[in-house]
Amino acid sequence: MNGDSGLAELTAATAEFAAAREWQPWHTPKNLVMALSGEVGELTALFQWLTPEESAVVMRDETVAADVRDEIADVMLYLVQLARVLDVDLVEVATAKLARNEHRFPALPR
Amino acid sequence: MNGDSGLAELTAATAEFAAAREWQPWHTPKNLVMALSGEVGELTALFQWLTPEESAVVMRDETVAADVRDEIADVMLYLVQLARVLDVDLVEVATAKLARNEHRFPALPR
Amino acid sequence: MNGDSGLAELTAATAEFAAAREWQPWHTPKNLVMALSGEVGELTALFQWLTPEESAVVMRDETVAADVRDEIADVMLYLVQLARVLDVDLVEVATAKLARNEHRFPALPR
Amino acid sequence: MNGDSGLAELTAATAEFAAAREWQPWHTPKNLVMALSGEVGELTALFQWLTPEESAVVMRDETVAADVRDEIADVMLYLVQLARVLDVDLVEVATAKLARNEHRFPALPR
């Protein structure tokens, strides 16, 4: 799968998914922020007792890796939905912010 | 800007950004999860006192809208970096999870 | 039970609990902050789809109320443990902060 | 200060504080959970780049220690307020949960 070509499709798919279940009334920005926060909490729980070294090789254990991918997926799904209802382009705002950070945190001299 | 064509570029740009500052030692998965969580906390703070109705029109106020876009950008930047160091394709895992959710939560009959 | 007389006892009990399981090496401040954050995520998930009005009467449903109490308990347990390992008196710092807030946010005139 | 005798007083003081500013309409359980989550995010940010070893001695730096105490105070204040509006006794539920955990996670043999 091409991760690049899929973000617009994914965004549209989340809209169709919510509409097919008539979940739109619950998908206020406030509620989606909470849902995003809850999923980040579940992701955090997977890493809370790991040493930095263990966290660096967390994907070597296929069971844990599956859990990590699952929680990252949930976080991404709510972030995509939040951005959609707020009409925010995730890649555009992140790219612009990274550009601003280039100035805030100058690179080391080579 | 094309949000779709930019995710791979954004991912690469975050890698270059961290490398140019020699920040990689701090960018363990564990630390990036914490950074993601901290940014979601800042996003949450923007919505905590809003009614559902106020949250639905939060982008009408240009000052607040700029803050919301800024925090969403920070969340996206750390999510992209976390996915990069874990070698997870954000769109792929989210698309796959959405497909699984189609079965877990059947759509309403038409 | 007297909630007041129990905070010092609770704090001591969490220390004994961790020691009896030899969990102290995992209970660094960093890890306990993550554990606290993860539990707040679970608490958040209980409230994410509720309207403000529903959230105000959430304790009327005994099943949900039990879940809420359980998650609040987990949050409190990790906050108590974090404060203990950092040698922070929870009531003292919160009382002092509230006093500072009295000045930051003046009360309405009567 | 006696941390034990102060929790009931602190709880009452937060009620008076909110009433004097007529903030009660905003202090729904849902909103207080979000506020708690936002403060935990700020606390998380203080620890995100620290090694476990650095986090263990974080209070040796008086400036950082003051920030840590300040964020823990904010977390405690919102937790106390959430518990108050939900009529939950923080020490009671945490003590009861710890007792249940004694059974879920048996202590090591001596």
TrEMBL record, chains A, B, C, D:
One BP term from GO: nucleoside triphosphate catabolic process
Taxonomy, superkingdom: Bacteria
Listed CDD domains: NTP-PPase_RS21-C6_like
Protein name: NTP pyrophosphatase, house-cleaning of non-canonical NTPs
InterPro entries for the chain: dCTP_Pyrophosphatase, DCTPP, MazG-like_dom
Any Pfam family matching the protein: MazG
GO molecular function, one term: nucleoside triphosphate diphosphatase activity
Domain NTP pyrophosphohydrolase MazG-like: 28-106
